[in-house]
Amino acid sequence: MQPIYITYLNCFDIEAAALSDAEILAAIEESLAMQGRRETEIEPRVHLEPRAGVEGHFNVLRGWIGGEIDAAGVKVVGDFVDNYKQGLPSEFGILNLFDPRTGTPRAILDASGITDMRTGAVTAIGAKYLARKDSRVLGHIGARGTAYWNVRLLDSLFDFEVLRVHSRRPESRNAFAERLRRDLNKEVIVTEDWQSCIEGADIVVEASRLSEPTPMLKTEWIKPGALVVPYGTMSAVELSLTDIMAKLVVDDWGQCKGGKFGSLRAHVEAGKLSEQTLHAELGQIVAGLKPGRESETETNLFWHRGLSLSDIALGHAFLKKAESIGAGHRLRYA
Fold first, then answer.
1. Which Pfam families does the UniProt entry name for this protein (predicted)?
2. What's the pLDDT score for residue 193?
3. Residue range 114-128, pLDDT digits in tens
């Protein structure tokens, strides 16, 4: 047997590869189009809750992308809400890529940053197809790692005039706003409550960190014609939210319709979000198989739970970029 080597990219290699915002968005948009054309395979994520009394769990995501990428991948990401008390990020992830013809391992990547970037990119691509083109006000709930990339990549597409952010802890939301001011060179409004952040916004993103389902986001605050993107682990929206929507869109119905977690879990269980009420998966819209926004008056909702396909596509893009600049580590496997 010939020697087998795998490529390892740690967090410093990912940082060195430094994909641009446009490169991140392009990789994710193409992977969504491939999903829409059924050039991929995806299995619903599974969860592992290892210890009673610990506020956290592991997500395991699995999938395959064809085309030029032609890779199978498995990502394991820990989601532990109280990590900030130890000075740690709430999420750590590892992405493993394999040859789908032989099962041979190809690469191991630090996926903590990749998770944040691909989540923000899916939010932004969803808004590209479902929000008003003249959206100028963003209201964002939550300040974790994915929140930064939500705002950064959304702003790269919409160039907002008003950016409003809120999260539960003042130190968290203030630090988040300061980072955005520095990197986007824009004023960012920090609000003291959910209502003043959300009310009147053209695009509303809910990425909260609730310990149990609590209807913090009120349906009456949503501006007609807005896009709402809820993706917190625990539901923060009222059951009536789906009633005002012209289109309900998800990233993958297979994983949205089942499982313990998710911002619209109660809506699925109540039958408000079903195969009958679902407009499309985002990939079908990106691929041109279903329409996105069709009028300025539509109020739309996009729920994404996170796609293994996005991790694989962005991981592949980082591998190519890292190779071009000589970053990464070659490890002997067998």
1. OCD_Mu_crystall
2. 95
3. 999 999 999 999 999
pLDDT at 220: 97
Residues 119-306: name the CATH superfamily. Answer: NAD(P)-binding Rossmann-like Domain (3.40.50.720)
Length of the chain: 334
Q: How many Å apart are CA 187 and CA 295, to the nearest integer?
A: 30
* Neighbour-count burial of 317, counting CB atoms closer than 10 A to its CB (0-12 exposed, 13-18 middle, 19+ buried): buried
Where the chain has pLDDT below 70, the residues are: none
Instruction: Report the distance separating Cα 254 and Cα 196, nearest Å.
Output: 35
How far apart, in Å, do the first and last CA atoms of the chain sit?
Answer: 9
What angle (nearest 5°) sits at the alpha carbon of residue 107, between those of residues 148 and 120?
Answer: 15
179 residue type, one letter: R
Strands across the sheet containing 40-48: 40-48, 56-65, 71-80, 91-98, 105-110, 5-9, 329-332
CATH superfamily of 5-114+309-332: ornithine cyclodeaminase, domain 1 (3.30.1780.10)
Distance (Å, whole) CA 86 – CA 84: 5
Geometric angle at alpha carbon 87, from 85 and 91, rounded to 5°: 90
d(CA 244, CA 279): 14
In angstroms, rounded to a whole number, what is the distance separating the alpha carbons of residues 189 and 168?
A: 15
Amino acid residing at 3: P
